[in-house]
Amino acid sequence: MTTTENQIEQDLISKLEDLKYSPRPDIRDRATLEQNFRQHFETLNRVRLTDSEFTRLLESIVTPDVFAAAKHLRERNSFVRDDGTPLYYTLVNIKDWCKNNFEVVNQLRISTDYSHHRYDVILLINGVPVVQIELKALAISPRRAMQQIVDYKNDPGNGYTKTLLCFLQLFIVSNRSDTWYFANNNSRHFSFNADERFLPLYQFAAEDNSKITHLDSFADAFLVKCTLGQMISRYMVLVASEQKLLIMRPYQIYAVKAIVECIHQRCGNGYIWHTTGSGKTLTSFKASTLLKDNPDIDKCLFVVDRKDLDRQTREEFNKFQEGCVEENTNTGTLVRRLLSDNYADKVIVTTIQKLGLALDGSNKKNYKERLEPLRNQRMVFIFDECHRSQFGENHKAIKEFFPNAQLFGFTGTPIFEENASYQQIEGQQASFKTTADIFQQQLHAYTITHAIEDRNVLRFHVDYYKPDGKKSPKSAEPLAKRAIVEAILAKHDAATNGRKFNAVLATASINDAIEYHSLFKIVQAEKLAGASDFHPLNIACVFSPPAEGNKDVQQIQEDLPQEKADNEEAPDEKKAALKAIIADYNAQYGSNHSIGEFDLYYQDVQKRIKDQQWPNVDLPHAQKIDITIVVDMLLTGFDSKYLNALYVDKSLKFHGLIQAFSRTNRVLNDTKPYGNILDFRQQQDAVDTAIGLFSGQASKPAKEIWLVDKAPVVIDKLQAAVQALDTFMQSQGLESKPEAVTKLKGDAARVQFINLFKEVQRLNTQLDQYTDLTPDNKTSIERILPRDQLQGFKGVYIDTAQRLKEKQDNGGDKTDPAVQQLDFEFVLFASSVIDYDYIMALITRYSSQAPSKQNMSREQLIGLIQADAKFIDERDDIAAYIGTLEAGKALGEKAIRAGFESFKAEKHSKAMDDIAAAHSLGTATLQAFVESTLRRMVFDGDQLSALFVPLGLGWKARTKAELALMEDLIPLLKKLAQGRDISGLGAYEQ
Length: 990
Hints:
Blueprint: H1 3-18, E1 22-23, H2 30-45, H3 51-61, H4 66-74, E2 77-80, E3 86-89, E4 102-112, E5 115-125, E6 128-135, H5 142-154, H6 159-162, E7 170-174, E8 179-183, E9 204-205, E10 211-212, H7 215-222, H8 225-233, E11 236-239, E12 244-247, H9 250-264, E13 270-274, H10 280-292, E14 299-304, H11 307-320, H12 331-339, E15 347-351, H13 352-358, H14 367-370, E16 379-383, H15 393-401, E17 406-411, E18 423-426, E19 429-432, H16 435-439, E20 442-446, H17 448-453, E21 460-464, H18 481-495, E22 502-507, H19 510-530, E23 539-542, H20 551-557, H21 561-566, H22 571-589, H23 598-610, E24 627-630, E25 643-649, H24 654-661, E26 675-679, H25 684-694, H26 702-706, H27 711-731, H28 747-768, H29 775-784, H30 787-811, H31 817-820, H32 836-848, H33 858-866, H34 875-884, H35 893-918, H36 923-936, H37 941-947, H38 955-977
Parallel strand pairs: 1-4, 6-7, 13-17, 13-20, 14-15, 14-16, 16-17, 21-26, 22-24, 22-25, 23-24, 25-26
Antiparallel strand pairs: 2-3, 4-5, 5-6, 7-8, 9-10, 11-12, 18-19
């Protein structure tokens, strides 16, 4: 551990002592940790355990299941003592977490089978380890500490599964200036990948959303004993259906606190402005559950719009806590539950429509009269998306009937005076109603500006499309649809990073959507006839059918004003067109949907859009959707990280524009640098107005935060990044060429190359997705770094990164700190277009063409493979196979694939023969051992030892022979495992 890291650790311990944590320098191993826990357990539960009872207690509570341990920590449990009597106990004081004992331990070492780990700082509550803090020196990214924790947890027999460390709830990582935290979880929810970022990571923030990242400030804000107790007991959620732990984000916590405090102080109504994609359901669930335990509240109703939201929200609530919300099948059930004194009926999820019927005095079933006994009770109403349909009317009815009610609303896009459209006539005076008019006061705001600055959502790249020619269209003026289809087909691959992502086309009417669907079929058929290498896009289209009295469709259309109006004109034509569109869909995807069960079709479209997340090797591209044509649907509420582009041929403004744009900006990784908007209506003024309206308070002009730099600015950055790489290579006495990188001396120089070229590739990835690059822009980019040179650098980057990653994985604490801190971000170097099928097709084409007529030489083909991180484990094999093929000797793709599999099998067989001969083992025996390992994906140490029994070696000689064999065998096993983990293999990699 470096001096700097040691100093950070000592300073943190001093800070925790100031916060009244008890330092425990005596706790350094498993035995002292358990002894301390025993003392606290016996004191808390007023009991003395025998040694055998304590051993059995440990056996019963220590579990590899993180979710089970988290439940155990929060509940009252029972245990049978030696004399057969039950002991009811808790591990901590769960009624008042502030009254527990808080201690700090550092440099704890725990050794178990295959696992010998040291933990920087552990926080104990009543002797139970609940927080682990991993520290790095200032120069090292905290992401390396995250990776280290995941690596520790992946070790077989690790301390997290075999000891009291199973109770860890939170991990905190810091290099003093940059601090992050995340919840512990079972492995399916706990794989950290520096590229994909599967772990939900958090930085703490103040109530105004300003970041608190310095370790000292973080400790003052987050690690105060009562605050930490609250974070674990109140603001973590155990999702039973997924066996998953969630911790709320800071803004969610402040919103919940604001609602609870407003009710406690009887401060009237209020609204929460939390941007689209910020997790409003979790926030409202936590507010509801805390209110459920508030004796001053008689009922809490969570009010949603539309039947599907009722079902969806109820399922979400029940996901967070099983059975906490029952179904309201009809208004009668709602009234019954409102009148019930049962604790289970205290929190109710219902629709605004059912609530309206219940309070409608003209209803024949006399619901309002039956509810009369509740008139003066304290009721809390929480409205999801509070500006939706029937805005204002229900609030008025609720306030009139329940004078003691408090109303709270959540919205991602509030209604201000500028974007108000609901009009209420009072006497002769007409006025628009805003969110503030209805809900009185804003309790907390987390705007899209905050979310972008936090990297919780992405910025936008907006291309205001201008067709070729001198005359530019006027604002909001439609272009010819065929021209738009041609433009989309030309730009889609760039917009979606080579079809890694997918897109939505927003149209102005149902008739427009129908016309677009037809045009895409016609234009793509023409292109396919004219060019055999044209790859058509998969096009889907979805809009609601004429309601014709169908209550489900009527409810859906309450939020689809354009579709509702369109379906009133020539409904039979719309219906016939939708039937034909669904028939096309069924033919394309092998499904069997019908207009009579429209909701099932709509759900399937949404599922296929989300299926974009699966690589083509797992789910063929033919089963996915590239572009979905819509009118109103999918433009609000729909989320997919793999949707990154919106094509706009309709007028959008205010909250409708923000909602539509926000479909594209869910965060994934650096291959998705922004949400891509291609606007065919020249709506720059509307975009600027919406950004100004919904930006909230910002430290700089909102457009600078919301919108990415123009292409020339990014090109200048690329120029600077390439210049920095050139300068570095020259400082090493080398030309700035791919072939010179192999001549770099020492890991420090290789690390510098990795960091410099990674920045070049990141900027290149951004520019690749700009849909508005001019010919001059493209010329500038090619001049700065020609494509051939870029590809060559990508190939040597992968070579260099692979070698350094092996050192990083195998070197442990002895690894050079510069190597240890590297994030390779291989995802930036993996093309979504170039997959295994694509490569096999290219090799087939190469083999079929005479050398004089080849579009791609053998060297270029090999270079393409070597520059793509997707083939990191197979690139040498593919390159060697291409070397065996004779150009011009035509082979079909089936023969190419079979030949490659045969080539690999022969190569691996020879490698196995060589390894067996080198270690005096029988090839058949070694082959059987390898096959058994790969079949079970478990490495068995006993089977390894059994290989050497015929050699009659003593234990020292046998151990030496085993280690020597493993040195040769591990690379082969990893290659054959194709990226999958072999359990237990890590113990032999040190």
